[in-house]
Amino acid sequence: MILGALEAGGTKMVCAIGDEKGVIIDKTIIKTTSPDETMPNIINFFKDKKIDAFGICSFGPIDLNRNSATYGYITTTPKLQWANYNIVGTIQEAFNVPIGFDTDVNGAALGEATYGCTRDVLSSIYITVGTGIGVGFYHDGSLLHGMLHPEAGHIMLKRHPLDHGKSVCSYHENCFEGLASGTSIEARWKRKAYELADEKLVWEIEAYYIAHAIINYIVTLMPHRIVLGGGVMHQKQLFPLIRSNVKSMLNGYIKTPEIQDIDNYIVPASLDDNQAILGCFKLAMMELYNTNSQIK
Ligand code: ADP
Ligand code: ZN
After folding, report:
1. pLDDT tens-digit profile of 158-180?
2. Which fold has domain 3-103?
């Protein structure tokens, strides 16, 4: 079986073909410009490859409601050329095969849960800390959506006492993305995040915010494992800081075996930046075999 994967991002489109075992046979990166320019390049990569099903995971917001007239669209994105764009319909028209569709972070959560570091647990969360912050929620074969896909990068946090900077989120003064995304680190310290590796306070504040968010996800959903990916998480010194902050913020309230073994509870992404692509393969299979838990 040949599966097609499209990880649609605001700066680049990652396209891959592979099989159900998660083997990537071919992969290319196409720059995201306008739909008129970018989509024909994507279609060109996939054509003649005899794709049986596609998985697409995309930047958002996107419409995942199968009963909606705009299902499969990128909706109100600030990347205006892509606002109200029917990305699933465009691929459907070109290839006429089943297409699974979800957010980029849900795709990453699914990739890790199928082929990566959360495949041995029932429920997991994938948090990406990059230009923005997104969170994907996986439970027992399904990805969580409600009236919309989760936007858990926008939960409200208590300010770190030494942080007097401005939030970079145009909607919220104190949300996770506004205070802890790569964009916000660079706005606060006026340097590229990777140049700040030796600045202790930068990562103390960052770990505080990430741990604060994680506490909220833990007490709400009790996931069996939490994965952290995205550009900012290349700063490996964050992991021990986050784990110790989580322990102290929980203050002994949750005493599961997972929390006791926190080094295996809060972990880095494991699939060499292919987690969302591999998640797309799984989305494609779910669509093909109709194992998606959503009502159609
Ligand atoms: P995107 O979120 O756009 O898909 P990334 O996950 O690579 O892409 O995130 C980019 C952000 O990550 C940038 O804002 C930058 O601040 C940050 N970043 C990238 N590399 C590093 C690094 N080595 N250390 C710290 N921050 C980094
Ligand atoms: Zn916000």
Report:
1. 999 999 999 999 999 999 999 99
2. Nucleotidyltransferase; domain 5 (3.30.420)
